[in-house]
Amino acid sequence: xxxxxxxxxxxxxxxxxxxxxxxxxxxxxxxxxxxxxxxxxxxxxxxxxxxxxxxxxxxxxxxxxxxxxxxxxxxxxxxxxxxxxxxxxxxxxxxxxxxxxxxxxxxxxxxxxxxxxxxxxxxxxxxxxxxxxxxxxxxxxxxxxxxxxxxxxxxxxxxxxxxxxxxxxxxxxxxxxxxxxxxxxxxxxxxxxxxxxxxxxxxxxxxxxxxxxxxxxxxxxxxxxxxxxxxxxxxxxxxxxxxxxxxxxxxxxxxxxxxxxxxxxxxxxxxxxxxxxxxxxxxxxxxxxxxxxxxxxxxxxxxxxxxxxxxxxxxxxxxxxxxxxxx
Length: 327
Prior knowledge:
Number of domains: 2
Oligomer: single chain
Distance between the termini: 29 Å
CATH architecture of the largest domain: 3-Layer(aba) Sandwich
Radius of gyration: 29 Å
CATH class of the largest domain: Alpha Beta
């Protein structure tokens, strides 16, 4: 799923409210016709709606503007103008909408859920409302109120069972390609993965779980360096985390601590998740080196060694993941 779109920005505009009518009755047998102007109709809302059949924000990628209808003006005989048609933006479950200040407007948590992200303008009152003992024939009616307008950012946080966490080139994309049908782009340079990839991993007895390859983070990501916050937020939605440290790392435990610290600075609650530490590319290591590396980790944090290329340790890794998910 290399075309996974997780972030779109759209200019939204709700409908203007219709104007109230200032009509005065003109009837053949009533010499002094009073006010009978109706109210204007409400402008259309812009509504975000959950759709369980959507998995990405890709359908919205080329949508630049969304505009709801204006309300109709009021008419004579106290006729209220029709409401402007609402416009719906269908999004996957797990989508968050933010306003231009970055504040969360709403989050879609279930199929069919609707959240108004821009309210239509209220229709103006007709002159019939302004009749009084001292003003029997008001010629005044309210104009409709304007709708809301501005940019809305839609973000989709990945929903996956296990999220892969590691520096660029740790072997995350290679692992995902080895254990699932996902075909992520793989190359030997930093930030190969610019958008998250999802893969369904087959397990024993026709069971499966979803693995997310989250783009590589670097030290300082929590302060917005590199690709920063945009990708760290995906980790919030994963059930467990799988830390990948490559066999050619200079200091294995230190690399784990740097990754752990980035997550802690971004959101300390991330460290409450279950996690597994693994050493990727372990076909480069002999048994003596593996033991030496393992001894650098505390007893409760011993890593699992695997190689995506030779398939060594992959079943053991899947077993450990399954046990964490369902233990």
